[in-house]
Amino acid sequence: MKKIDYAKFHLQQLNSIITCPFCQSDFMIENNSLICKNNHTFNISKKGTVILYKTSKVKEDRIYNDNLFINRRNFINLGYYDELHTKICKIINEYNTKTILDMGCGEGSHDIKIINNLLNKKISLIGIDLAKNGIDMANDFIDNNFISIVGDLNNLPIKNKSIDLILNILSPSNEKEIARVLKKDGIIIKVTPKKEYLYELRNALGIKEYENEELIDKNIATKYNIIQKEEIKTTFHINKENLKYLVNMTPLMNNINVIPNIKSITIALNIYLLKVK
User: Fold this and answer.
1) Which of 99, 129, 220, 248 lies 20 to 30 angstroms, CA to CA, from 167?
2) Residue 170 domain flag
3) Domain residues for 150?
4) pTM beyond cutoff 0.90
5) Nearest to 73 by CA among 141, 175, 1, 150
6) Is residue 175 part of a domain?
7) Is residue 92, in this structure, part of any structural domain at all?
8) What is the mean predicted confidence (pLDDT) over 17-35?
9) Based on the structure, what is the number of domains in the chain?
10) Using CA atoms, how far apart are residues 13 and 22, in angstroms rounded to an integer?
11) How confident is the model at residue 253 (pLDDT cuts 50, 70, 90)?
12) Which residues neighbour 222 within 8 Å (Cβ) at sequence distance 6 or greater?
């Protein structure tokens, strides 16, 4: 099957979940387009990409471009986040999950690592991101139970109370939209950086620490019930080639021309299991 055919198959399967971003009505698939009952039309590209956004003219972001996403994929594939993927899969496997929404999926490398390690192979995962470059790449994995969509995290093209589990990995989120689309008994897996995350790189470049963890905890606790919190903190040796991938995938490094001379890198993350209050 071609990517566009996989996309149409997934979109048909998810017809009870996907909705028009203009009028929130259902879609019909006609030829290679999604058309809602009010005739809002969204074409599916040959790459399997559909833009469910209020304009089809999504500009290429100066920072979140092909170069960033290619390097991001290369770095993730080296295994630095394997422990994260394992812990996320363990949580998902303990719940009755049918549909997962990744808010801020980028080019999909975290998602495919997770999908491939779930016990339930029938779980569907929808990735949403506003960066079309990332979504085009993410649909490399469209032959799995995965489809990614260009969409706005502040106006998700997702029906009310239709999602079992939301993933939010090192990405901004919209609490109102999470509460709207998540089922009453749904859960959220949110991943945030610890202060030691990429410490060696940030220290070499004079970039400030991440937000205070106690403040992050406090902010999360005002909106959600924290069911569980785990941490990952591992320091890896890193060579020049892998460091180059890291530098080029990191938005803060967009204007950096010189690769710093560091020999190790720390992956330090907090993994929250949450429920909406």
Assistant:
1) 248
2) yes
3) 54-276
4) yes
5) 141
6) yes
7) yes
8) 96
9) 1
10) 21
11) low
12) none
